[in-house]
Amino acid sequence: MTYPNLERKLAERHVMKKDIADLLGITKYGLSKKLTGKSDFKLSEAFMIADLLNEPDIRNLFQKENG
Fold first, then answer.
1. For 2-60, what is each residue's pLDDT tens digit?
2. DSSP label of 39
């Protein structure tokens, strides 16, 4: 898990990863690559996810785990 705060918020809000992928216009595989750090989120994607989750602090939401 590369983005633990994002993963936690998705779980808390019962948002399915398929819904996030659809919102971003990418496949579930593409989203998986972004969530595992193999591909980067675009800034516009980060804002769309933050808006969906009603999370004003995208720095916190997209903070990568250490290690």
1. 999 999 999 999 999 999 999 999 999 999 999 999 999 999 999 999 999 999 999 99
2. S
What letter represents residue 10's amino acid? L
44's tokens: 């516009």
Question: Domains in the chain, please, with CATH?
Answer: 4-61 (1.10.260.40)
Statement: the pTM of the whole predicted model exceeds 0.85? yes
Burial of 10 (0-12, 13-18, 19+ CB in 10 A): buried
Q: What is the dihedral of CA 10, 46, 57, 13, to 10 degrees?
A: -20
Tokens of 19: 């819904």
